Amino acid sequence: MAKGLLIVLSGPSGVGKGTVCSALRQKMPGLTYSVSATTRLPRQGEEHGVNYFFKSKDQFLSMIENDQLLEHAEYVGNYYGTPRDFVEETLEKGQDIILEIEVQGALKVKEKFPEGIFIFLTPPSLEELKDRITGRGTETQATIDHRMSVAVDEINLLKHYDYAVVNDEIDLACKRIESIIIAEHCKVRS
Amino acid sequence: MAKGLLIVLSGPSGVGKGTVCSALRQKMPGLTYSVSATTRLPRQGEEHGVNYFFKSKDQFLSMIENDQLLEHAEYVGNYYGTPRDFVEETLEKGQDIILEIEVQGALKVKEKFPEGIFIFLTPPSLEELKDRITGRGTETQATIDHRMSVAVDEINLLKHYDYAVVNDEIDLACKRIESIIIAEHCKVRS
């Protein structure tokens, strides 16, 4: 049995990663979603192993020390991270797993898991801008330079990814991500 | 405007390339189909530039000499080939073009057009066999060796391709090919 694929969905803040991921859940029920570990206390209705793996700070620090997290970050005084075991066990079962994560975290996952499929969700305007910048060059150099300087941070990170998916419409973005997953399963690997 | 993609659909004789291509035409009307050049005489109802580009033998030999064909072959006394101009003009317009071709021809196209997307259509049994051969290894070595020797010619060619698509059901095969095309358009190219 072939191993599953690790799909990493990332992109700039506010691009709509969460919304796209929720829509994908509906469209692709066979896809497993990575569950994060956190030191934050559970909120009403949150279940251990479903919403999060809830950990004490000591447990979390020990996971870091034993390389049991693919990435981790601190946010508002709490730790959040991606447990390696859950990802690897899912892949071993031949199931695909998707990880929704911000850009820096995704690049850390790539260091530990270069065989993952890294998808960068972009706002439509960034894509349009990129097309114009790299395209036919009918604008003045000054205009291009200014736009480049605004977009450059994100474009610099995009190059570390395998795919760029424009989030112009949620249905279209989902279809593109589904297509990437299907295509990756057809890929001839040497 | 981004250039279109050259999609090369190939696979062993009898695998159903023509049937899958016809189904794709229905599903993806925006896809252009490569028109072959031939020295064969037009049959009733066949149109120049639609079914084939009809050429005299001298014209065809001159196209070979001037590197105007991505590949060519002789079959039952007539020449057949893929005109480079038609492919390149379509790509320049930003349109994808699909070329349905036998395995040796596809590999010749790859020499001249390595940036093409090479898809190998496989019969389901080959895929199953490959999975078993490369999989968990519960069969005896003798059985594996025998099966390998039957499949080895095709598997040896498969490795030159980017994608393997199983033609188990036409609709599924079409969906996989459509997914590959969508995914390739999302690919981050360095």
Automatic annotation (TrEMBL), chains A, B:
Belongs to the guanylate kinase family. Essential for recycling GMP and indirectly, cGMP. It comes from the Bacteria. It catalyses: GMP + ATP = GDP + ADP. This is Guanylate kinase. Residues 4-182 form the Guanylate kinase-like domain. ATP binds at G11, P12, S13, G14, V15, G16, K17, G18. The keyword Cell membrane does not apply. Keywords: ATP-binding, Cytoplasm, Kinase, Nucleotide-binding, Transferase. Its main location: cytoplasm. CDD domains: GMPK (cd00071). Its EC number is 2.7.4.8. GO terms for molecular function: GMP kinase activity. HAMAP family: Guanylate_kinase. It comes from Paenibacillus lacisoli. It is found in: Cytoplasm.
